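Ligand-bound model needed. zinc ion.
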Amino acid sequence: MATYPEKRLRRLRYNPTVRDMIRETVLTKNDLIYPLFAVPGKGIKNEVKSMPGVYQMSIDVLVEECKEVEKLGIPAVILFGIPEHKDEVGSGAYDANGIIQQAVRAIKKETKKLVVITDVCLCEYTSHGHCGVLDGERILNDETVDLLVKEAISHAEAGADIIAPSDMMDGRIGAIRKALDEKGFYEIPVMSYAVKYASGYYGPFRDAAESTPAFGDRRSHQMDIANTNEALREAESDIEEGADIIMVKPAGAYLDIIWRVKEKFQMPTAAYQVSGEYAMIKAAGRNNWIDEQRVMLESLMAIKRAGADMILTYFAKEVAKYLDANK
Ligand code: PBG
Ligand code: ZN
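Prediction:
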């Protein structure tokens, strides 16, 4: 093998066009999924305090936003709903006229090819803010799965294109897959939040979704941040149960996990650059402590380089605009 001075890696770095030619990883609009928050009412567009540029929107505003997202060439959105009323069993989550069901119908009517993904969980809909039904302070797995199945079916009936369970109950992917198939929705893919850690990076999302647990935390169902082998077991069981797309979440602090999941299973793999990752880059950018656009692109490139095929990111619109301006 050649060594210095014959071998000079810088030869391919002097010329910007040559740099373009040898670039190994490329970020495109097709990599992007844009998260959106639906609230009841009309004409509402509330900025989330800890997430500059992210808004809770009423359905009329949300529909206009989705038209813009489609026009920008972003292929997909993922929807989160904040219901009018919350209760112990999260009824708003599986109400045929719930916030998400209405939002999906309105968006599908007003857009042409935008892929509408719905997040399936109960925490935005329960009065206690937990992801399932409770017995005292315990989240009951199997009883919760029954409700998640109802929620997934009602999203499919409203016209959702992809169902994304984020709850981390055991067995929910299989149960949802089976129910979708029985109802004739065998063409609707399931994007599983397969590897979801109990992370401090979700803080700003809980402001946006008004889903902070009233007591305790999510450690009895979300994964311990210290574990890797368990992540592979989580991914494997969701694949066996019929997941079409596997997600790792958060993304930036879990690049090793994205890499190992992709390497091992070779599945379409999504990564969620979560609210806290976004908030940190925004905050530092606003203070001029970092070049926000540059760090935004670098953070997304890292996630792609680690093996993600799709990235859920609050930066999606900004990235799409950047890519248009820098063709
Ligand atoms: C609901 C859900 C959460 C996120 C996505 N779906 C919050 C949580 O688990 O507390 C977090 C997304 C983000 O932080 O951007 N289960
Ligand atoms: Zn939840």
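The CA atoms of residues 85 and 92 lie 7 Å apart.
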